[in-house]
Specification:
Number of domains of chain A: 2
Radius of gyration of chain A: 20 Å
Number of strands of chain A: 14
Number of helices of chain A: 5
CATH topology of the largest domain in chain A: Rossmann fold
Oligomer: homotrimer
Chain lengths: ~260, ~260, ~260
């Protein structure tokens, strides 16, 4: 069998030894996995950003890969730790909506709770505030060893949705929603929104950070000193400055509201 | 045999190709090790911080793991390169106290000098100022291949202690010491001190950065705009601001003095 | 056969999931490679810096290692993707001069174009602006699986040279050139130039950032508050401040002109 792959997506940063401890726990259970960092620089507690990172990167990994995501405002509270199977990949992390989008994309997706304490670290080696190391890391490693998801705990049929207002299994949100927020700022300062317009953007401008930003079709069409918008190669509305930094120019950060509004 | 694990803890940063070169040397000698970064963002020359990182992370790796630590104000001077065995793990790095705490915790710990030049890179591939790549990396890789520690050089019975005033084998320092310093600042700005009070903290406050900080028992008890202290899950005195950044608020950095003083 | 090694050198940063996607593509094709990051913090589009990183680190990896380098101002334009063999190592990246120096060092170096689309990702999984993931990553992975370089495309006999003015196969530039630029700034703020003086530096000073900087022979000889220069252990002219930060003091960044001028 090929060497299993476990990817890591967290808000831990790389300065603290937290990521190292997570990897140590995984390698203690399965010494021959390939460990790949997706990012550890998620804005603290930014669930939509984690969801975006997974969506961007996960499909470039082979089927059967295990994606561990820890971004968890609710750590210590009662929300359930989950293992989800969707699109031929495994996802391990908190039930806070971080996997809602990948599950929504696969009608046969399935989630299980990580409930059996045999798969978790125990005191004094565990801490109530470090589930990434104590619950999610060992679950991912046991999954890589072939433990079936049903062994970890009961089936979960109502995973939390990203907007926290409805379970992910409910009717899909309208894909042409014209309201969203900045879910990622890439290294060039481009603002990526969660808005995926399915009926085109003709007749609209983007409202963000108090500005109305016109659409163009290619990056090169943007003026060098003012923001412009386009539908990017992932189908998402993106605001950029040609050879500049839109986040700095607009003073926008992750979570800033974005809307499509009719051109006047 | 399971794939051996070598972890890396340095003050090299990730921008320069130094960490990459260290890994190249290791893989040239042992192509099938798992390499795991603990941190490369140690404050320059901060031995106590390196010691803390190792203590936090090493026990989450399986027995037999090899922990390479390079934080070395004395590079180029006469201090000895060491291989230490303690608590079922291996430690490779300079004899400057970085392994004193892990050795102190295991009465059967043993250290050997890396003295045999057969295990080191040679000119023109080596440089007098890059022992991480030229001495510690190859030693760790040969150790992973099963070379016994005695083959590297003579037994060392007087490794340098962390406070540089006594060898690590001497009587342990009083565990209830009430004076220490900030040894780590985590990504939330929490100040972690080296003080491990074994008789409780009732009747004391923490003196740090010109402030007297009261103890609480849980993070949630701290006021949102002022520092508070607690004994953290590792038994160390920690100063924090509830949902804030204690390091920024107090202007404290690694090495800042910390003391427990009687409540007046 | 030993596990193949693929190293990664990019200007992608570690915040975005780009590096993770590149690794996912590689592991999808060859699940058992060792992946090693050299740096992902190259200044954007700094070809000379990438060339320097490769030169510094590549020889510490075993023969047969594959070095992927993506720093690519011309992405989307017509420049060719290349596989180069030089000095017993493989190099995969754009034909923009990034491999000119390693090729120049080996008279039997050979380059091939990556032209066969069978070795590249295809739409909708590919994007015209992400050749690192879509072209270079799969080529490196197929190379690691043993695909001969000639299978990827035709031989290239005129790879672009670093200064873009002549192909790399032409007469070597004069090694004693006295003009160059800052090609790297290390974590201590030392300015490393591309100037490799082969006839000594007696009678010269370094002109950089409007200052004339004298030569010394060891770092310890530099004054604590003023810049000094030396020929470093790699044979390159380097400007430093003893226990200080030359880049900050001089306000110099990568690409700043450097020259040796006669001492007056």
């Amino acid at each position: 069998m090929d060497r299993p792959i476990i990817t890591l997506t967290t808000d831990f940063g790389l300065r603290d030894p937290s990521v190292g401890s997570v990897k140590g726990v995984i390698l203690s259970i399965h010494p021959d996995v390939a460990l790949v960092d997706l990012t550890h620089d998620l804005p603290r507690h930014a669930i939509a950003s984690a969801s975006y990172v997974l969506k961007m990167a996960a499909t470039y990994f082979p089927a059967g890969s295990i994606h561990l995501a820890v971004v968890d405002p609710g750590v210590g509270s009662a929300r359930r730790p989950l293992i989800c199977s969707a699109g031929g990949r495994w996802y391990v992390g908190p039930d806070n909506g971080v996997f809602a989008e990948v599950c929504r994309g696969d009608p046969s997706s399935e989630c299980h709770e990580i409930a059996d304490p045999r798969f978790c670290l125990k005191p004094p080696r565990s801490s109530p505030t470090f589930q990434g190391r104590d619950v999610f890391a060992p679950a991912a490693a046991w999954l890589a060893r072939g433990t079936p998801p049903g062994a970890f705990g009961p089936r979960v049929t109502d995973p939390v949705d990203l907007d926290s207002s409805q379970p992910a299994g409910a009717a899909p949100r309208h894909a042409a929603s014209r309201r969203g927020e900045v879910i990622w700022i890439d290294r060039f300062g481009n603002l990526i929104s969660g808005i995926a317009p399915d009926t085109g953007v003709a007749g609209f401008v983007v409202s963000v950070a108090g500005r109305e930003v016109p659409f163009v079709t290619h990056y090169a069409e943007g003026p060098p000193d003012a923001p412009a918008a386009l539908v990017n190669s992932d189908g998402l509305v993106e605001v950029f400055v040609n050879r500049g930094d839109a986040a700095a120019l607009l003073g926008a950060s992750i979570g800033a509201p974005v809307a499509l509004i009719p051109l006047r």
